Amino acid sequence: MRNSIAVLLSISAVLAGCNSAPKDIAQSEPHVSEQSAAVVAPALIDRKVLFGNPSRFQGRISPDGEMMSFRAPLNGVMNVFVGKRGDFDSVKPITNDTGRGIPVHFWSLDGKYVMYTQDKDGDENWHLYAVNLQSGEIKNLTPYPNTRAEIIAQSQARPGVAVVGLNDRDPKWHDAYLVDLASGKRTLLADATGLGAIIVDNNLDVRLGMKSLPDGSYQILQREGAGWHEIFKIPFSDTLTTYILGFDGENKGIYMLDSRDRNTAALVHLDLESKEKTVIVSDDDVDVGSVVFDPKSHQPIAYALNKIRPIYFAIDEQMQDTISKLNQQLSGGSQLLAQTLDNRYWTVYTDESDESPVYKVFDTQSGELTDMFVTNPDLEGLPLVKMHGTVIKSRDNMDLVSYYTLPLEADPDQDGKADKAVPMVMLVHGGPWGRDGYGYRGDIQWLANRGYAVLQVNFRASTGFGKDFVNAGNGEWAGAMHDDLIDAKRWAVEQGITEENTVAIMGGSYGGYATLVGLTYTPDEFTCGVDIVGPSNLQTLLESIPPYWESFKQTFYRAIGDPNTAEGKALLAERSPLNKVDEINKPLLIAQGANDPRVKQAESDQIVAAMKAKNIPVTYVLYPDEGHGFARPENNMSFYAVAESFLASCNGGRAEPQGDAFANSSIQILHGLEYVAGISLDDGSKNLESVSK
């Protein structure tokens, strides 16, 4: 496993992945068809298909290439299954969770264990578990209360153990422990007090640490005996685009993605003794990403560039033909997820925008890419639509890599040219230090099927496009970052995709904040907004960030505003939607997880209370068993039922009847049920609770 210094505040992370550099997709020109009025909207796609459990997901191949694993429903809950590679008749469940399901699993490098992480109701206090494949025993390797486990590394040189970060001694710092996978016994390797990250070499020896400094820069320290000494610094402007990937095969140097002295992150090798830095690959347009290492030699052999979609490139000359064959078989999004120890088989997630994602196996010897499984076969034959990539210019001439999706009734040929204007939803990604990418998403297909165009914008502060673009967002929450969204909306209107007064805004985490900004700072730009776990008060957001983000406080302060200075406090107040609730004149739906450790329930509570005090309509949905985003499919089903009825009433799209969407959901509608047409609490759901007033 590779060590990363960057921290992201987002619901989900996007991975990326040849022989030619990616090309921009030209911006569409308005296109009007005389027959557009005759196009009939497709049948509604059942929410259960779009938001229910997939048939199989998160496919992995064992390190020796003999076995496979994946997550799949067991009595309606996502569990882990294992069997012989390619033989689904041999597959059996190795877990039997009955709660929120298992979100992440992976193999031990010796192939004897399958490990997974799990928290309690979204509190993000992750526990690490190991399943002994021979005995079937499941052991909680980190059975410590109120503790967050972070897997740091495994190594072929040290089978049967893993290095795990644990913050049970001090919630601010993750000490590094060597954990025995059989017994769970742990041995302290390094006290992490003051260190935001600990980095081990290929023998699992602690070698490096990262310390945040008051000016927001990072100090990279090398361990010497019981002490540490600085070997280099990462300036604040580079902290989100520079981080250590791992050690070389001789454990004498490190591979990094490094933007120092340049704009985009290049793949470099740094000799720790001589401090000589060698640039291996770089690109002037986007950051190098998804570096592929040989599992045995630890040398980089390939990488990806991802502007519109990921394209792979070979580093090792012997891999040129192999990578060329891989690229020839990929046309959409893709992610390399795992490799066998002999590097023969790669597990690849392939992601066309208008069909179910497929897990595939790439044979690096033959060059063949074959299906492992389709994640959601029920999507086959349904009226799904294509995503299109484009680059939109901001008002200050920045390139905003964006994606738009048109409903069939607006673009029956699916060529990316709108035959008529339709209502649109601007879907804003979380983070903000993340990015939107190309590929299938259930929420996008849901919106398009309900009659909306969907626009996703990589606004400034999004990652992957160089440090200048990331840092252009510093101090610009509710400022230039929001201007980028407005500029993209203008582009969509100019293209004939939508009209000025038929655009809603929706998003989670930072995207939820952007929704609140849209309805407060630009109240006439959007018809309505859907905020999912979005902060409303930047002062209280920073006061309540989890203690284990201590080393990243300066990153937040410099990006958002420093609460320890008068100037920073003023900026936080100025850019907090809570302080501008009087400006809201459009419908707002807020959804929150009660156990969210990042954006606490108070962020939603306080803006709802302020709106109620001023008699401003708002609908507030709470899930007592969820955190930063919703994991249980029953909860997603109920939320999207409310959201589509809400959007239909304020932005003119279609809505599937509520039906049994609330069955077995923990949904609580705390306020504003009366503002959502078509939603009833009287459906007999025993777990449904409402205190709507």
Keywords:
693 residues, 4-stranded antiparallel beta sheet, Rossmann fold, alpha+beta, 2 domains, 6-blade_b-propeller_TolB-like, signal, AB_hydrolase_fold, 10-stranded mixed beta sheet, globular, Methanol Dehydrogenase, Chain A, hydrolase
Describe the model.
Residues 441-651 form the Peptidase S9 prolyl oligopeptidase catalytic domain. With 693 residues, the chain is an alpha+beta fold. Strand 34 (588-593), helix 10 (601-613) and strand 35 form a beta-alpha-beta unit. Helix content is 16%, strand content 30%. It folds into two domains: 36-45 and 380-537 and 576-690, Alpha/Beta hydrolase fold, catalytic domain (Rossmann fold); 55-375, Dipeptidylpeptidase IV, N-terminal domain (Methanol Dehydrogenase, Chain A, 8 Propeller), CATH 2.140.10.
